[in-house]
Amino acid sequence: MSFLFLFLLSSALLLHSSSPYNTSFHIDCGGLSPSTDPYNISWSADHFFTGGSTAVVSEPLHFHLQHEKTLRYFPLSSGKKNCYVIPLPPGRYYIRTFTVYDNYDGKSHPPSFDASVEGTLVFSWRSPWPETLARDGAYSDLFAFVKDGQLDFCFYSIATDPPIIASLEVLQIDPLSYHSAGLGDNYILVNYGRLSPGSSQWGPGFTSDPDAFGRSWQSDSDYRAGNSKSARIITTKEKITRTEQAPNYFPMKLYQSAVTSEGGLEYELTVDAKLDYLVWFHFAEIDSTVKKAGVRVFDVLVNDKNVSRVDIFKEVGSFAAYDLNYMEKNLSNSALNVKLLPVAGAPLICGLENYAMVPADLATVPEQAVAMKALKDSLHVPDRMGWNGDPCAPTDWDAWEGVTCHTNKDGTGLVITQIELGSQGLKGYISEQISLLSNLISLNLSTNSLDGTLPIGLGQISLARLDLSNNQFSGSIPESLTSSNLQLVRLNNNLLEGRVPEELYSVGVHGGTIDLSGNKGLCGVPPLPDCPLFWEHGRLSKGGKIAIGLSCFLFVAVLLLVIYIFCVRRGRHDYDFGLPSDLICKYIISEVQFLSFASA
């Protein structure tokens, strides 16, 4: 499935007009320094990427803009999954990419790869590309909500092909645009056609004509079908009212040109089946000879379903914008047909937009995503493993290497159930955030170079298999492990010490497997040595502390008894040959004070 609408061109300019919202990024992917294009748009040097390398197209002179000449590619050494991670305030965004191959690597093999936005698959590229596409490149765009404070725009390699991108733009737009109040924020609108009948390509990226959202509009001539190919073009320089208004901010220029045909108009748009599509129609009565309602009336049909009867003058008068939208659900074929059939006069249209409504994919539940990113940092997971973006999404892709995910019980998110990272050359420690992985069944970090203590949070009730063997973990075995349902425990060949919880060792008694060998400091259960009476986990045990406390108490009690005998009773019956009783008392009292201070 290819959720993709391509703008093919030999050269293009990229620009947006001033927007009601301030947040925007223009990233020259592969660019090493900032630049400003002929339309005074500032492009930043490449940043926010998780990996990859830079390259230059094979024919730089074929492209007129700097950001079309460079690209970033992601070889397998950077992992199967790589991303641009851009900090953004929560809201809705217009996102546009420019993708070009132009044989930058000299292999004459355009790559196969997927791209996702916020964990949802949106674009698919498959080799071989059409020759003009590979050489000239393509712009693709969409509207998406960002809810968590950062945009994850990710790429996934198919086979061994390195994904590529030449530029990435992100512009904040009105959150209520394109009927989001009715549709909700769980859809991504992918552009499958944004047409401006009666005009050539224009808007940001092609002309100086502004569009507050950064949208570019292309000619409809290649999409008109049947007798519509010879439709008459109407243009005007008159001001069109009801334009540039919230929440969609459709530009005035869109309504200053139109096509009309006595026999009706027809458009054929290529789409992907089994998706819902949101179709927007734009009208304005710009023919000054139409002065009353009923003169121009026509029906709008989508795939032969009559969706509306339109009388522009009746709705808004002349030289005023009028829009309507329609949702085509569960399209069963690869073409969307639009017809404007006359009722009175000749149908007229100023603009046509078609968006695939891609449902937002399930994402890793937030607290587990946090835990996995903490583990990535603490374990020093190498770039080659591709631990970038959402650990589990998109569901069309494999999860992070070594990670297994499942849908949670209520079907609202994805959870981590297994982590298999044995013999991966990891160097670091286990983050305490692992306690947030409440659905973890199996954890294997064996045969690495991990150290530090075992986190107290490692003991989820769900945990059944734990293999941390052949590392350099130190300290004691946490009591929390006894609360899990472990069936396999391998902690052998580490530097662990102290008493082994009896409940943990009972795993072997009840038919499970446990191996604690190779830890010279462990004690307490056979075949391990007995633990010292007053020594536990490398320090004085609780029993030892109690014993010492009782010993000190008894010793002080004996001394007090001696004081009584020598200082009280003996003081009354001093002998001539003995030491004076007051000296003996002072000496004993000073010793008691010293012992009391020492025990304190």
UniProtKB/TrEMBL annotation:
<feature type="signal peptide">
    <location>
        <begin position="1"/>
        <end position="20"/>
    </location>
</feature>
<keyword id="KW-0472">Membrane</keyword>
<feature type="transmembrane region" description="Helical">
    <location>
        <begin position="546"/>
        <end position="567"/>
    </location>
</feature>
<dbReference type="InterPro" id="IPR024788">
    <property type="entry name" value="Malectin-like_Carb-bd_dom"/>
</dbReference>
<dbReference type="InterPro" id="IPR032675">
    <property type="entry name" value="LRR_dom_sf"/>
</dbReference>
<dbReference type="InterPro" id="IPR001611">
    <property type="entry name" value="Leu-rich_rpt"/>
</dbReference>
<keyword id="KW-1133">Transmembrane helix</keyword>
<dbReference type="Pfam" id="PF00560">
    <property type="entry name" value="LRR_1"/>
</dbReference>
<feature type="domain" description="Malectin-like">
    <location>
        <begin position="27"/>
        <end position="356"/>
    </location>
</feature>
<dbReference type="Pfam" id="PF12819">
    <property type="entry name" value="Malectin_like"/>
</dbReference>
<keyword id="KW-0812">Transmembrane</keyword>
<keyword id="KW-0732">Signal</keyword>
<protein>
    <recommendedName>
        <fullName>Malectin-like domain-containing protein</fullName>
    </recommendedName>
</protein>
